[in-house]
């Protein structure tokens, strides 16, 4: 049996009539768009379509104000299930409006590249369980203090030095291939001298030694 809310399953909160909820009042809004009219027809769900009236410029502007992403300071946009390209494009459209966000969670969204995005005030960013392969694919975050990248596919530490001039204090790289690189912790801390914690472990004295200091231990004499 269908639930009473079934007829609203493809609608965003700002498309539902007679309410005044704004985007920055939601803790974890679902922002992915629903299927197109053509897709609904092939699914046999054309009954879910509402009669669509001509949307005026005034109504478009009112919807934009209702979303109110520009004033969001803390936002959780995790688990969006971005299955189609148009959904991902809408998702990135919203991310571009987060000019004041300070804490942002984007966990498990199958993201691969946000390098065109700039988050000027972001101090805490969680992009765990995505598909990033390089630090170069991350957004520009000049004020970042806490960055979590666990369970991605970052192969090397190339590009990590781009964060050298940020106030980054805590970095999580657990369950990335780069974690198995020889002298991994020393390489990270030598690239980021201001870093205080890596993978939940505070900076240790042995983390401060240059990465090449034990190179001679790998040498052997063949007689």
UniProtKB/TrEMBL annotation:
PANTHER family: GENE 29133-RELATED, LEUCINE RICH REPEAT PROTEIN. The lineage of its organism: Eukaryota, Metazoa, Chordata, Craniata, Vertebrata. It comes from Pygoscelis adeliae (Adelie penguin). Keywords: Leucine-rich repeat, Repeat. This is Acidic leucine-rich nuclear phosphoprotein 32-related protein 2. InterPro entries: LRR_dom_sf (IPR032675).
